Amino acid sequence: MTRPAFPHIPWSSLPGRENGPRVLGVNPWITDFAAFNVWSRPAGLLACLDMLRAAGASVALLDCLDPTWEAAPDLGLKWPRPGKYGTGHYPKEEIEPPAPLAFMDRRYSRYGLPRERVAEALAALDPAPDAVLVTTIMTYWYPGALDVLDLCAELWPDVPRLLGGTYATLCGEHAARHADAHLMAGPLETPENWSRLSWLIDFDAPQPSGNAGLSLALDLYADPPYSILLGSRGCPFHCEYCASHALYPRFRQGTADAVMKSIQSEHGRGVRDFAFYDDALLINPDRWLWPVLDRITAADLGLRLHTPNAMHVRHLTPEVCARLKAAGLTTVRLGLETTDFDHRHDVKLTREQWEAGARNLVSAGFELDDIGVYILFGLPGQDLGNVERAVAHVRGYGFRPHLAHYTPIPGSPMFGAACAASPYPLAGEPLFQNNSIWPCVPGGFNWDEARRWKLLLHGQQG
């Protein structure tokens, strides 16, 4: 039986600009012990493709974690049906773990599209690209990016390949040794990065301005079950465990008109679930958030809004909670970190602010099951007894506690302490930055403890 042809991944350009350079963006597979799709999109890569298209390039997207082509006959792809609000499992293939992680008693997998199908999709791309942009979302997922780069090098050995994203930005020395690509550290819209890319592909384009970096090429997904919203880049805060400032040194906010235009476009394609990707959603809400929420409410668009990046609890006044509820906020995620309010590693939060924010959410009519609270787990030198008390505290409110497993991130203020506390060479090998191995917990990951924490999260005796 002949296998059906792989679907064509179309080039997209602005009207009258079809003769510009062709730039392919690739979001690689996840290679990890576990992965779950919580409204995942490569926001940085989508921003790059949008600004390149606006400058006159033709762009295409291959997301190894999501089909990005038009509907086609049966391709032999078994993709799990979307779960609640568009989230869900990825298809996966168990593979051998990289040598540094061979000690782990866990299955290691490649999540996303089958590798052979990705290779076929790349080979079928016609005409060939003039440049390939490969992103990286987590530092320790770099094996998937290196694999994609190798596939592209085999197909188009003379085409410039650029590696950007978290791994390229925060682990530059490691990436320079292992990636067969030009490294792009930081946002593309910086003058240095834009000039370098323009030179590599002989593209005489003006420096991006205006909403560059905040506008996303979401239309490159053919039939999306969800979409994302980005009203700002970066964060004004300096939490010790976060590398936001190393990735985006400047906190920028967009405009309500730009965000609303994106919502209307995606809504017109049938999307009803939208996830906010902002790190500081409730900062300066008059700038764009309130006008957007007011327009959503007035238009009665029937949206479900989600906040996978935790909101800052201290900003949850009765008015804020009421406006969020009226606009359709459905999935609420809060950043508590710890109930030891005198010893925090993030934005200062008092017990009174936490209790008021929690009370205001309930008073605004949010369902308890839709309110999840992130509690940091596995920090260097952390007393895990405090984590247990925080879990019990959150459950006492009727909310869902979630352990936010600590990831040692280069460029974050806490990384030095993490390196000192961990038995693994975190700075030399990004694979050891994987939070699945509990890199800063004495003794590391073990199944008995994992099961005990799972029981505690569900209110059962561990």
TrEMBL record:
Keyword Protease among UniProt keywords: no
InterPro entries, A to Z: Aldolase_TIM (IPR013785), BchE-like (IPR051198), Cobalamin-bd (IPR006158), Elp3/MiaA/NifB-like_rSAM (IPR006638), rSAM (IPR007197), rSAM_sf (IPR058240)
Keyword flag Nucleotide-binding: no
Domain B12-binding: 27-208
CDD domains attached to this UniProt entry: Radical_SAM
Keyword tags: Iron, Iron-sulfur, Metal-binding, S-adenosyl-L-methionine
Gene3D superfamilies assigned to the protein according to its UniProt record, in alphabetical order: Aldolase class I
GO cellular component, one term: cytosol
GO molecular function: catalytic activity; cobalamin binding; iron-sulfur cluster binding; metal ion binding
Domain Radical SAM core intervals: 221-449
Coiled coil: none
Pfam (any one): Radical_SAM
Cofactor(s) the protein requires to work: [4Fe-4S] cluster
SUPFAM superfamilies xrefs: Radical SAM enzymes
Listed name of the protein: Radical SAM domain protein
Species of the source: Pseudodesulfovibrio mercurii
